[in-house]
Amino acid sequence: MNTLNNSLPHRTEIFWGEIAPCEHLVQLYGNDEDFLASLTEFVCGGLEAGEGLILIATPAHLQGLEAKLRARGFNLNAARERDQYISLDAKATLSKFMVHGWPEATLFQELILELLSRARGNGRRVRAFGEMVALLWAEGHSQATLELERLWEVLCQTEAFSLFCAYPRSEFTQDVNESIQEICDAHSQVVEL
Q1: Which domain, by its residues, includes 154?
Q2: Average pLDDT per run of 10 along the chain, which is 193 residues long?
Q3: Which site in 77, 156, 167, 170 is 20 to 30 Å from 132, CA atoms measured?
Q4: b/e per residue 59-95 (b: at least 16 CB within 10 A)
């Protein structure tokens, strides 16, 4: 098995408190602990700045994240009531716009635009996290994954929100460097731990 070459472009350390709109970040992680630490900082930075958060993740990752947020004193129930914190199951959300194994652009846009409208509330900036791409990738749908990344990028640029994606390194098994490069190229920055 090949290993990740540390010379991939766009690698950076992120200060989660100051992420620009239209930033499309990706993290390739080795374990859930490291990933949840990054996701927690991404979300905390947004909540502390008064931004809206859209989180589309697996139930296990949402539970882990929310435990960390509560431990830091965030009132997630209040944030949910004002649509500042919107969390959705990635698999269920993915099923709303996939047609014959392919992301249908209009259905995707309608869904995400509705979520953005809610999260923006009183003129809030928005941060989004999406794990649907990692689910598609894990199922071996590499082209559908790249199309979904492209759809996210279009909305990210036109709607001016920051977007964070994450993939477990364990899902990159064949042609590792080439596969990782394709994913990294679909993002503006690669997050380092």
Answers
A1: 20-191
A2: 33 52 78 91 93 97 97 96 97 97 98 98 94 90 90 93 83 54 59 56
A3: 77
A4: eebbebbbebbeeeebebeebeeebbbbbbebeebbe
Compute the distance between CA of residue 145 and CA of residue 80 in angstroms, rounded to an integer.
29
DSSP string, 22-82: T-EEEEEESSHHHHHHHHHHHHHHHHHTT-EEEEEE-HHHHHHHHHHHHHTT--HHHHHHT
Q: How many CB atoms lie within 10 A of CB 21?
A: 15
Q: Are strands 98-99 and 102-103 parallel, antiparallel or unpaired?
A: antiparallel
Structure token digits, residue 80: 């949910």
**R_g of the chain computed on alpha carbons:** 16
- Does a structural domain hold residue 4? no
Structural contact between residues 100 and 28, judged by C-beta atoms closer than 8 angstroms:
no
Give the whole-angstrom CA distance, residue 190 versus residue 193.
Answer: 10
Would 173 be classed as within a structural domain? yes
* CATH number of domain containing 137: 3.40.50.300
> For 169, how many CA atoms within 13 A lie in the half-sphere containing its CB?
15
